[in-house]
Amino acid sequence: MEYQFGDKHAAAIVLNCHPNSLARSRRNTSYGWIEGIHFVRVNASNIRYNLTLLNDWLMNRHDPNAHHRAIENYCQVISHQRRQRKSKAL
Question: In this structure, is the dihedral angle defined by the CA atoms of residues 55, 18, 31 and 35, taken in order, positive or negative?
């Protein structure tokens, strides 16, 4: 699976919300968004959202186990990519 990232405007389209409400969503622990998984801070003012996982979160809000499986799949992909980069560097 390919994971797409986007800015707050792209994330707002996926979630059908205002871009400014994403900051509240990141802070709201009941949403369960994880920094480094659902969003990444590029720097203090630049945040990129994992659009693929946000869409999955939206579809599976009432089935946390299903969304947790999607997170595990994402972590496996990231881990595999890191191993590939490390082996190429050697």
Answer: positive
User: CA–CA separation, 58 vs 50, rounded Å?
Assistant: 12
50-81 burial, b if ≥16 CB within 10 A, otherwise e? Answer: bbbbbebbeeeeeeeeebeebbeebeeeeeee
pLDDT beyond 80 at 86? no
Tokens 């881990």 label which residue?
A: 79
Q: Which two tokens stand for residue 1?
A: 């699976």
Say which residue the tokens 């560097």 belong to.
Answer: 89
Residue 3 φ/ψ, nearest 5 degrees? -105, 130
Task: Return d(Cα 15, Cα 68) in angstroms, integer.
Answer: 18
Which two three-digit tokens encode residue 30?
């009941």
pLDDT of residue 80: 83
DSSP state of 33: -
What's the pTM value of the predicted model, to 2 decimals?
Answer: 0.87
